[in-house]
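Form 12-C: Joint structure prediction
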Amino acid sequence: MKPLLRALAAFFRADMATMLQYRGESVLWAVWGIVYPAVAMAMWQAAANDPADGSRVGAFGRGGFAAYFLLSMIVGHLTTAWSAYEMGYFVRHGTYSTWLLQPLLPIWRSAAGNVAWKLFTTVILAPLWLFVALWARPHFDLDALHVVAGVASVLLAMAIAFVWDYIVALAAFWTTRTDAIGELWFGGMLLFGGRLAPVELLPGPLYYLSYALPHQWSLGFPTEVLIGHASPERITSGLLWQALWLVGGLALFRFGWRVSIKRYSAVGA
Amino acid sequence: MAPDGITFAYHAHMPVVTTANLCKSFRVPQREPGLAAALRSVFRRKYTVTPAVVDVCFSIEPGEIVGFLGPNGAGKTTTLKMLTGLLHPTSGTASVLGHTPWKREPAYLRRISLVMGQRSQLNWDLPAMDSFLVQLAVYGVDDSQGRQTIDELAELLELKELLKKPVRNLSLGERMKCELCLSLLHRPEVLFLDEPTIGVDITMQTRIRQFIADYNRRYGATVILTSHYMADVTALCKRIIVINHGAILFDGPLAALVDRIAPFKLIAIDLERELPNGLPPHLGEVITAEARKLTLRVPKDAIAAATSRILAELPVLDLTVQDPPIEDVITSVFHVKK
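Section 2 - Result
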């Protein structure tokens, strides 16, 4: 375990150094991540403006939407993963070959890079989140259970999002254009993950379909818990679903890796 | 990994590398040019199976430096990639240091290194030293020992002043030296070099060759080298494996290949004056004739007699006996076996 931690720390330091080199680019990518929730927040707050409906959509009023999308900015940032986008590039250009020569699975390198980027950009985004919080006047309905369960749920969501994104990225061993697959995956996050609308507002069939996909468990559910919208029963079942998606993802990655690595010769190498 | 000052002692009498009937085929999509063909290929894609490596068998002893020679697409790099565990073979077996390479066991990967002249393992945006420190951590090399190795290698490769420059600001030759240093930080017992001198100038090529020879001598490491530069091969490798169309055409000492394919020497002559009636045929076969300069091809066992006759019968200003260029010998192998 100690050698692995030493390697992760080394990756982390190198990634931090690279981001400091390209700080402008890192900031732009991070700011881009708050655009979707900001637009969605404005739209849904406008929709919740009709007194005839009690100025509500479902269980959400203006303050509820502000809280939901503010949290989805933060949770979305903490759970973002991008291996599905960049894997095709690394395979085509032979970078992945150099990683495969090392006595450590390349997923660890990506994991360290993922954490480094989030820490680095969080420092930049925190003032923006604070500004949104002051401007949008969110309404939270929190107690200690929601905070503790919410934090646990975010940590699980980070792991789920990363592992499932890496599983999708393994498609790069089978096809050359994985960025399109990455886009589709991101589209799933918009609809089923709760980036465009809270999952509980999805129409019936889509709501149930969201249980069969990992997206809700990487964003929508932890956000719902952290704004205080989830009942104790929903929190318990949701955390179990998350555990299931994480264990399932790890098992699928283990299997997918073994199968995919044999295919590596097909493209790039 | 070998401790300081100790050479690798991998069962001295066992080969480090063995392959048996190693084959690799690629399934390659094919289509005619043009829009219509592109449209047809959407519905019915055609593939051909291209054999890249065919029934390759060889073994390499500890401490050997072996040159892998062949034209582009011959199967050299594919073989190297199978031996380093990057590619799974279609069939056949291979063992390197007692491991099956494509099982990719960390214990195996810690004992080898692959340097690809056309691929960088260094972080482009950071000084090389940063990549070196990551490498030490990934390979679990003790920090103080690793830093000592960096100092030693930096000294040998004369790259101390380069370590703090971002890699993107290094010249190709400087970068290659850093790549070599990076690849050797964990003291690999088997070093695979895929065109390590490609694109670098003559002086740097010589420096890199010297370094590889030093590393091999100092640590007893086994080196498998592919290169398009014959100078790399002649300077480093006593043994060569010639491969073309995926199959081995020759495996043995370089000198034996020259004897077998080109059992002759070249005699270059500068004359005082042109010969009005040309060269008497009994003196040798004329390869090139340019005013007062001649090059003759003479069987090796007839060199002494031919030289005496030429000196006696012709107005010679200067005469040298040369081996045929190694490039020509290798090219002959490809033609002979086609």
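Section 3 - Comments
The radius of gyration of chain B is 25 Å. Confidence is low (pLDDT under 50) at residues 1-7 of chain B.
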